[in-house]
Specification:
Layout: H1 11-18, E1 25-26, E2 43-53, E3 58-65, E4 76-77, E5 80-82, H2 90-102, E6 109-114, E7 118-119, E8 124-133, E9 146-153, H3 154-157, E10 164-170, E11 173-179, H4 189-202
Parallel strand pairs: 1-7, 2-8
Antiparallel strand pairs: 2-3, 2-5, 3-4, 3-9, 6-8, 7-8, 10-11
GO molecular function: coenzyme A diphosphatase activity; metal ion binding
Keywords: Hydrolase, Magnesium, Manganese, Metal-binding
Protein name: CoA pyrophosphatase
């Protein structure tokens, strides 16, 4: 099978992708036999998919979560978290959390738009907020939540050829999920699923 050529990634391409139709995603997309609880209440959350200028191309900011956290310890994630009462919306939540977690000043962030929300197996409805940071800033990880802040080439995580589906047992049943590894970083689960939704919009 002939592989698709990598998509040229720039801000115009991202903005054009946001104008295309999309649909919500879920941790259960690859598991059609999963039974979801009736009447479940999902907690709104926002994550910031912030891109910055790298040496040769746009790069995406990601974090490794602290191993001490209750939810998803040690996993790779976007900066972000649940919407609090003081937040105007999920975008405000994503900006606040990014400031708290990695020291990104909200005034440096140019919000480009949002992707449809993603339902997680832990009961959150997460909205990815796509954004551009055109100026450098001092990364200040909140050590109680963030073990590491790093960047990956945007062209890597938005290339469908780089995605792999894998499976593992979770709560007694086999679950299939996306991964998009990069070097020593094993990007999987909800983060990879949201990135895959973004990838589908780009292509």
């Amino acid at each position: 099978m002939q592989k698709r050529r990598p998509v040229t990634i720039d801000l115009n391409a991202i903005k054009a992708a946001l104008d295309r139709p999309g649909r919500p995603s879920s941790d259960f997309d690859l598991n059609p036999d999963a039974v979801l609880p009736e009447g479940r209440k999902l907690r709104p959350a926002g994550v910031l998919a912030a891109v910055v200028e790298g040496r040769t191309e746009l790069e995406l900011i990601l974090t490794t979560r602290s191993s001490a956290l209750k939810h998803h310890p040690g996993q790779i994630a976007f900066p972000g978290g649940k919407q609090e009462e003081a937040d105007a919306d999920v975008t405000a939540a994503a900006l606040r959390e990014a400031h708290e977690e990695i020291g990104l000043p909200p005034e440096l962030v140019q919000v480009l738009g949002t992707l449809p929300p993603h339902e997680t197996g832990t009961g959150f409805l997460v909205t990815p907020v796509l954004a551009y940071v055109g100026e450098p800033f001092q990364v200040l990880p909140e050590t109680g939540e963030v073990a590491e802040v790093f960047r990956v080439p945007l062209s890597h995580v938005l290339n469908p050829d780089n995605y792999i589906t894998q499976s593992r047992r979770w709560r007694g049943v086999m679950r299939t999920y996306y991964t998009v590894p990069y070097g020593p970083y094993y990007i999987w689960g909800a983060t990879a699923r949201m990135l895959r939704a973004w990838t589908d919009r780009m292509t």
